[in-house]
């Protein structure tokens, strides 16, 4: 008796960001995919954000619909995904993305917005282990910090124009990362997690209220770099962040859109508009512009600008971990003190509050000319005249027995 063969293994799905890119490449909306697969639009959105994955027949239908069943090339992982240093200079020839330069040589450059980005490895395939086996949490955190903090500080400086703020933003992000290390360690891109936290803190509008951050730091002395940094800081925050992530860090367009919480079309528009605005202010373009794709990318100029500027060196990783633990301890103590104060105020209120209802007494009123029993009432003008006359006739003897009313 022969055993029947089991079901054929299903093809692994691409990453959530790649699923969204494939859907948008076919010009399909979430509602159209949901209607074709037989689910709701919220379910499709959960599949594209990584909160859930399709199974069974819906998985096969979804795979055929977005066209990810055929084998795709695996995207080369950038140094930022691995957490290595960023913003290195490029050699002659085609300039790769500044964040994709490694010690062994340049990695492939990021494609322009109108070209499809290479696919990322499917989630079912084995990926890099954020915390290698045999390393403690402290050692894994220190390794991530040592590989990402210097380059991330230079990125934040290009984003804000403040050296101290860039250092402060990176420290703040790594403190939060240490407090949430189990979540960060299991994330698909721990360096991207920290980068997003650093950017959010650095671009907070509350920093404008600080006197030391109302003006940017002195611009570079070199005219070309001064013009580039001035043009970069003159962009809107969303355009500046999109340009830095795509042309500076080297992320693909879907990854840039996901990190900036925008659609792929909106991110592409911001990128093209930012490139055009910067190209108008630069004395001469560093790379020739392509008439079909618009202004040229700024990989090389951003890399040269980041490396030429002196930024504060990040502190040691143990100091940042200790600072994060200290901040967490202070917040814990503050929460406990607030809880004790709230409990004490509640207990005092319960102790001093009345235990039964007391009906309020109505004010006394005159009934039929009879004064109320509520106590002496206010004297009338006639009563005041009589009182004054009696006080004036007390010394006259018998006449006080028959008072004369004036």
From TrEMBL:
Amino acid composition bias (Low complexity), ranges on this chain: 83-107
Q: Which UniProt keywords apply?
A: DNA-binding, Sigma factor, Transcription, Transcription regulation
Residues forming the HTH cro/C1-type domain are 20-54
Compositionally biased intervals (Pro residues): 108-131
Task: Note one Pfam family from the annotation.
Answer: HTH_3
Q: Which SUPFAM superfamilies match?
A: lambda repressor-like DNA-binding domains, Sigma2 domain of RNA polymerase sigma factors, Sigma3 and sigma4 domains of RNA polymerase sigma factors
Question: What stretches pass through the bilayer?
Answer: none
Record PROSITE patterns: HTH_CROC1 (PS50943)
**Which residues does the annotated region (Disordered) include?**
1-31, 66-136, 364-385
Q: Which PANTHER family match?
A: RNA POLYMERASE ECF-TYPE SIGMA FACTO, RNA POLYMERASE SIGMA FACTOR HI_1459-RELATED
Record family assignment: Belongs to the sigma-70 factor family. ECF subfamily.
- UniProt protein name: Helix-turn-helix domain-containing protein
Task: Give the organism the record lists.
Answer: Streptomyces glycanivorans
């Amino acid at each position: 008796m022969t055993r029947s063969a089991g079901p054929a293994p299903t093809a692994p799905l691409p990453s959530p960001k790649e699923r969204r890119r494939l859907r948008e490449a076919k010009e399909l909306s979430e509602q159209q995919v949901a209607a074709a697969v037989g689910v709701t639009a919220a379910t499709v959105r959960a599949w594209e954000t990584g909160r859930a994955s399709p199974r069974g027949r819906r998985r096969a239908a979804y795979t055929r619909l977005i066209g990810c069943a055929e084998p795709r090339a695996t995207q080369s992982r950038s140094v930022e995904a691995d957490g290595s240093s960023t913003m290195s200079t490029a050699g002659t020839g085609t300039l790769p993305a500044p964040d994709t330069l490694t010690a062994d040589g340049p990695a492939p450059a990021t494609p322009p917005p109108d070209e499809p980005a290479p696919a990322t490895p499917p989630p079912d395939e084995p990926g890099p282990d954020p915390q290698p086996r045999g390393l403690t949490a402290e050692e894994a955190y220190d390794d991530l910090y040592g590989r990402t903090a210097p380059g991330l500080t230079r990125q934040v400086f290009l984003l804000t124009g403040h050296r101290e703020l860039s250092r402060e933003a990176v420290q703040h992000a790594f403190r939060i990362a240490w407090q949430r290390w189990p979540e960060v360690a299991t994330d698909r891109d721990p360096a991207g997690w920290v980068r997003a936290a650093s950017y959010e803190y650095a671009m907070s509008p509350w920093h404008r209220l600080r006197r030391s951050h109302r003006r940017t730091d002195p611009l570079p002395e070199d005219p070309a770099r001064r013009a580039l940094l001035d043009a970069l800081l003159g962009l809107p925050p969303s355009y500046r962040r999109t340009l830095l992530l795509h042309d500076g860090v080297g992320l693909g367009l879907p990854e840039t859109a996901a990190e900036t919480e925008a659609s792929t079309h909106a991110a592409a528009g911001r990128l093209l508009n930012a490139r055009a605005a910067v190209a108008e202010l630069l004395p001469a373009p560093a790379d020739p512009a392509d008439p079909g794709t618009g202004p040229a990318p700024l990989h090389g100029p951003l890399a040269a600008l980041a490396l030429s500027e002196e930024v504060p060196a990040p502190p040691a990783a143990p100091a940042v971990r200790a600072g994060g633990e200290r901040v967490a301890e202070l917040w814990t103590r503050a929460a406990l003190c607030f809880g004790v104060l709230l409990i004490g105020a509640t207990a005092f209120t319960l102790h001093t509050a009345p235990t039964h209802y007391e009906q309020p007494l109505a004010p006394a009123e005159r009934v039929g000319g009879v004064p109320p029993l509520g106590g002496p009432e206010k004297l009338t003008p006639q009563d005041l005249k009589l009182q004054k006359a009696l006080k004036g006739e007390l010394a006259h003897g018998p006449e006080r027995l028959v008072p004369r009313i004036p």
